[in-house]
Amino acid sequence: MEFNARSTALYVRVIALVSLMLGLNDAARLLGVQLGAQSPIQAWGVTGFVYLAIFAGARLFAAVGLWIKASWGAVLLVGATGVELVLYLLGNPDVTMTAPGFAVRLFLVAAIIVLFALNWRHRRAQAAD
């Protein structure tokens, strides 16, 4: 996948920044920034803490991949976010998120799908020339 086309370069960077902000927010939750004296492991349980760590790490790596316009960044982002949303929608008690967090994750998945569509359209236009 080529993200160097003029139509997608800025779009990819915006998605990377949103992914970075969400990953940093999750990392702050891992550190227990707003929990006070309570341990994050006690707040979410061991399984919830591990899920959060995996999704935060994947989102941060995906942000780097998107920033350097590598296709693996988009795949990693849609994979991690998609799995997180599926676990949440299936009612897994270890995956928790707020309504704005859910909306941001939906935005990320939709943005990557639009990115794939733009890339496919760009490739078809190049093949037609």
Chart the SSEs and their pairings.
Layout lengths: L5 H26 L8 H28 L3 H19 L9 H30 L1
Helix pairs in contact: 1-2, 1-4, 2-3, 3-4
Give a brief outline of the structure.
The chain has 129 residues and is mostly helical. It has helices at 6-31, 40-67, 71-89, 99-128. It is elongated.
Q: Can you describe what's shown?
A:
The model has no long low-confidence stretch (mean pLDDT 88). The protein is 80% helix and 0% strand. It is mainly alpha-helical and 129 residues long. It has helices at residues 6-31, 40-67, 71-89, 99-128. It has one domain (6-128). It is built from 4 helices and no strands. It is elongated and about 60 Å long. Helix 1 (6-31) packs antiparallel against helix 2 (40-67) and helix 3 runs antiparallel to helix 4 (99-128).
Number of helices: 4
Q: What is the β-strand count? A: 0
- Note the gap between the termini: 18 Å
Overall helicity: over 70%
Instruction: Label the structural class.
Output: mainly alpha
Unreliable spans: none
The global form is elongated
What labels describe this entry?
mainly alpha; 129 residues
